[in-house]
Amino acid sequence: MSQPDAQGEQLMADPYAGSGSTTSPAPVPQPTFGGFGSSATDDLHLNASSSEPLPTPDFLFPESFDEKFRRSWGERLTFHVGSAYLVGLIGGGGAGFYQGLRDSAGERQRIRINSVLNATGKRGPGLGNTLGCIAMMCSIFESIAYNVRGEDDLLNPAGAAALTGALYKITAGPRAAAAAALGLSAITTAGTFITQRFSGRGALKFF
């Protein structure tokens, strides 16, 4: 055999075939990407033979498990104004419907329909706008009180509702303003306390 052929066979020969050692070659370390492939994440790999379920979170959103979770002032302002307007629109529309039927009693059907539509369209949006403005003021004052005090308790909605009622009826005199402040503050505080008992957060806190 010539010298070039011997050199070619040596290059193509298996380096482990002729050795007398029975030890296998050292395994090549696998690269890890973002923690995958390491021993710390072995429990996260799917294994058909394992009977233990994979760890799953108990809650999907932070408001479901964080008792101190508080939405942003914009989210709560939107919810308060929209909810108050909807309540006023439905309540005022129902009152207008009843008023239209009462005022047009004994008239022809066309006149009664016209009376109901006029009364409903007048009282529904009017009460909705009123409650929407009150809710907007109360929500803004409550957010300011929370940011100034740093506490999220019943004093924030109570004070915000009292200030809102006083400003809303300030042109009617001090007695009417005080009555509106006390009444709106009592209603808001009672509503927040009741919702705290059921949801653990309160109407002005959760939304």
Sequence-ordered SSE layout with sheet pairings:
Layout: H1 3-12, H2 62-65, H3 73-103, H4 109-149, H5 155-168, H6 174-199, H7 203-206
Describe the 3D structure:
- This protein has 207 residues and is mostly helical.
- The chain has a domain at 71-206.
- It is 63% helix and 0% strand.
- It contains 7 helices and no strands.
- Helix 3 packs antiparallel against helix 4 and helix 5 runs antiparallel to helix 6 (174-199).
- The longest helix is centred in the middle third of the chain and has 41 residues, at 109-149.
- It is extended and about 65 Å long.
- Mean pLDDT is 75; it is low at 33-37, 39-46 and 201-207.
Observed structural traits:
single chain; mainly alpha; 7 helices; 207 residues; 63% helix; disordered C terminus
